[in-house]
Amino acid sequence: MEERKWPGPKGMIPEPERNAADANMINRRYLDELHVEMRIIDAVEPDLTLKLFGETFASPIMMPAFSHLNKVGITGRTPMQEYAAAAHEMNLVNWVGMEPDDEYESIINEGAKTVRIIKPFKDHDEIFRQIAFAKEKNSLAIGVDIDHVFGKNGKYDVVDGIDLGPVTLEDLKAYVKAAGDTPFVAKGVLSVQDARKCMEAGCSAIFVSHHHGRLPFGIPPVFALQEIIQVLPERNMKIFVDCSIETGYDAFKALALGADAVSVGRGILPGLLKEGKEGVIRKVNRMNEELSEMMGYTGTGSLEEMDSSVILHHGRHL
After folding, report:
1. Residue 70 per-residue DSSP state
2. What is the biggest distance separating any 2 CA atoms in the chain, rounded to whole angstroms?
3. Which residues share a beta bridge with 141?
């Protein structure tokens, strides 16, 4: 019998070595269990245009909020600059994770509309300072990684020697206020409870995510998305999703279930590290083709026409 394998942090791993607590494995399995019905009569070629925060983008597939990819690559530039350049050329939303101001500036200078995500530093003054810098650089939006608080030892995490700390509802309100007219995003929401608090804080958007498996046994973000959409049907917040969005088919499932846009995440890494910008463009172009294919076969002419009733789980409509 063929050996069963599961997705792991370094590729496919054999069944005996898999970690049952790995939220990425749980998420991949759930996504693959979602099936799609066909609605082909009257279907037309889809329009992938995304309208977000007053801007228009070519696709709802966004770049990930990577950090620390600062080693100069084959092009003489960093991978962070390369995928930002790809986002600019393809007219996609670009995201950037934990980077010092000079690195962030070099990335945003590639021309892509960029969202800066800031770690929940213990030093709140640093958070406010980075918010101010992002505003100065005309960032598309600003956010905080609310899910990167604890480390594997159960203590507040330390990243690059910098102490992180908790995020309270009052903290979120203060960050939203500091962002002012710039949209504020809470990244790392995985429950209705946190989604409600983000809405109370005045967040412009939430990113439904477990940060590539930070939470052991974490529920799939696409599952959490369904509960959030059901409980908060009347909301002003945009909702984004990531984790295991590796193909346009994955993207379609998340979008059909209510996400406004999705992030491709580690799906672009192989091409990015080997070919730079061109590898990213090739991957996302293929994802756009797959997304368009699924939209066509389900009679979905635009993002506004996404309909969760085309998705089935274990033979039942969601």
Report:
1. -
2. 59
3. 115
Both tokens of residue 238?
A: 């945009």
Per-position b or e across 195-215, b if 16+ CB within 10 A of its CB: bbbbbebebbbbbbbbbebbe
**Alpha helix positions (H), 165-220:** 169-179, 192-201
Distance CA 262, CA 63 (A): 9
**H or E element that contains 31:** helix 23-33
Per-residue tokens: 314: 């274990």
**Angle between helix 248-256 and 221-231 (nearest 10):** 20
Task: Show the low-confidence residues of the chain (pLDDT under 70).
Answer: 1-18, 73-75
Residue 66 confidence (pLDDT): 92
The rounded distance, in Å, linking the Cα atoms of 8 and 196 is 32
Per the CB < 8 A criterion, the answer to whether 21 and 217 are in contact is yes
Q: Are 99 and 67 in contact (CB under 8 A)?
A: yes
Return the SS3 of 44.
coil
The two three-digit tokens of residue 73, written as one number: 């690559």
> If you ran DSSP here, which 8-state letter would residue 182 be given?
S
Q: How far apart are CA 275 and CA 314, in angstroms?
A: 39
Secondary structure (3-state) at 271: helix
Strand pairing category for 61-62 and 55-57? unpaired
- pLDDT given for residue 77 in this prediction: 85
Question: What pLDDT sits at residue 6?
Answer: 47
Helices (H) and strands (E) in the chain, counts: 10, 18
